[in-house]
Amino acid sequence: MKKVIFPGIALIAICYAFGRFSYGLFMPEISEALQLDDAQSGAINSATYIAYCLSLLSAPLLINRMGHYHVIQIAGVSAVLGLLGIGLSPNAFVLTLSVFLAGLSTGLASPALGNTVYAELAPEQQARGNSWINTGTSFGIIVSGPIYWLFTEYWRLTYIFFAVLGVVVVVWNRRVISKRKTEPCTKSLWACMKPTRPGVALLMASLLTGISSAIYWTFARNFLTDEKGASDSEAVLFWIVMGIMGILGGCAGRIIERIGIGWSYRIGILLLSLSLGVILLPSMAASLISAIVFGSTYIFLTSVFIVWATRLFNPNTSIGISLAFLALGAGQFLGSSIAGYTIEMFSNTTAFLAFAVLGLFGLLIRVKPPVS
Asked: Residue 129: CB partners within 8 Å, gap ≥ 6?
């Protein structure tokens, strides 16, 4: 089990934490160096969402044709090239292309690793395996946060360092992951991807979670510094705490085995909405509590979606994971835009409360057997 989980965690850390989320962390320094205004920086950041959605759509086709082993290699190489490109970017065009390449890796890595778990691990180990691999984002955030703290001015060298780590992880996965293929989709790929009614419930749950969580990923740090007067050091500490607590999401597999997907999902939705409300309390301690709850719950919920998808779309697990994460990414893309507009028209407090209430609508989604 460890032979699959550890390199999988490392790959998710490279693709998600370094390739996708670190740009937001280093964006002020990158923007200053390349003389980008806020609109340009935001547009470049949107390239990660576009790449993520495109790669999620293509991942099932690639895995069905080539197998998960080769798609894992493509994901790793894409992340490395993207990270290296960001570190060496001389202008906005190269930066946009590099951010796009790094973003492609995320939508390829998750479905391919889900297929790997299905092919390599026994059925009773798969929920735990998927849950722990999914915590790679948190491990990556734990690494990237202190690096940002120590080497803020040297962002180019930091990204080159991330790329070197990526090469090590690609080689590691290449050596330990077998080339064994799972059963391909025997019908047309569209027929395999077309969700059943329980599948629609999964997609709606993923979409709504993506929308409600988007305001936190996009505006929580700005809210701390602009509204609550937090220092940059306190904001980075907030980021690191969120990453550390995300590791608790690795327990999702065992929790699902004990109480089922239905109750796991409902508890996760309640805690996610609670974290959006707690961050509005005036003290910094409340902000850290919010980071603890959000960090652990977000990773927990995405693990729930992975397990839910693999059970619904068995044996075509990569298709289920791709669809669930596509809905999650689409929700985050929509949620970021809606959140920004709401904050501009009303206030941070109104926006966070509105998104907390919106998240609670996820409780209306019914998780039907056999997945509950």
From this structure: 1, 4, 5, 8, 117, 121, 253
Under a CB-based contact definition with an 8 Å cutoff, are residues 105 and 17 in contact? no
Taking the C-alpha atoms of residue 342 and residue 353, their distance in angstroms, rounded to an integer, is 11
Sign (positive or negative) of CA dihedral 88, 94, 96, 98: negative
Alpha carbon of 51 to those of 75, 96, 101, 168, 231: distances in Å? 12, 11, 7, 23, 33
Overall pTM > 0.70: yes
- How far apart are the C-alpha atoms of 203 and 306, rounded to whole Å? 11
Position of tokens 């959140």? 339
d(C-alpha 13, C-alpha 138), whole Å: 7
Mean pLDDT by 10 residues, the chain (372 residues): 88 92 81 81 78 89 87 96 95 93 93 88 86 89 83 89 96 87 54 64 94 87 82 82 85 87 94 95 91 93 91 79 89 85 88 94 81 46
Closest CA relative to residue 306, chosen from 315, 317, 294: 317
Burial status of residue 97 (CB atoms within 10 A of its CB: 0-12, 13-18, 19 or more):
middle
Spatial distance between the Cα atoms of 82 and 88, rounded to a whole number of angstroms: 10
- Tell me if 19 sits within 8 A of 102, measured CB to CB: yes
